[in-house]
Amino acid sequence: MSALVATSRLWDLAPIGLDDLMERAALQTRVDRKYLVPLTEVDALLADLEAGTEILDIDGTRVFTYETVYFDTPELTSYLLTAYRRRRRFKVRTRTYVDSATCWLEVKVAGSRGDTVKHRAPYHREHHATVDPGREFVDSVLTGFGQQASFAPTLVTRYRRCTLFVPATASRVTIDTDLSWHDRHHRLHLPGLAVVETKTSRAVSTVDRRLWRRGHRPTRISKYATGLAALRTDLPDAPWRRVLRQHFTAAPVPLRKESAPCFALPPLPWR
């Protein structure tokens, strides 16, 4: 059981259903601020939340398992656009909500004002490792990016997430723990680290201010790009070099050759 699942703080918060959360804070176009927080400090952060903060609750479950497959071109176009900080960048991924066995195909693009615009469409879970059935959707979002090359699965991330709603700023906060990454050759698991992300329309949320008071500042991290850089030291990693040195200190573990062709990862203890 993960530490996030075990903490009683999650059960001190009022619940909010998924439909209500999406109605009040869908935030498909938003400003994201990410923080890397030691897992040992998450409980104190939860205790410091403002009154009225609610937590996503679906049938009594408040911590959910996510699995995301990221796709890139043979030249790693998506990765390199981010590594070289190009303004017009994108990500293509499938996201599987393991607990509900639902899946979405998502394309995220950088907006004109530094925000993030996410496009998503329902997807069959059995297609989670390919974009071929959804290629028309992907191409429609990436019009103007000139991406006609094939997309292949490049990286898989897994983690546990709880989602908070802060009514005062109509913002969301996600806390991800039990973080792991793998490609066809290596796996990296960072159980002692949490990624806290605030998602707002633009204004700073009260959770941002609480994190600042605790000495945490927004960090340049991308689950896709930073994770891939941690697994592949041959790639340019300038935007995340400090993060990699400070937080991604565990060595990637080689995967068995027989497991590589299917792009699969052995279950983690909480699976």
Automatic annotation (TrEMBL):
Cite the InterPro entries for this sequence.
Answer: CYTH-like_dom_sf, VTC_domain, VTC_sf
Residue ranges of domain VTC in the record: 30-231
Task: List the CDD domains.
Answer: PolyPPase_VTC_like
- Name of the protein in its database record: VTC domain-containing protein
Q: What is the lineage of its organism?
A: Bacteria, Bacillati, Actinomycetota, Actinomycetes, Micromonosporales
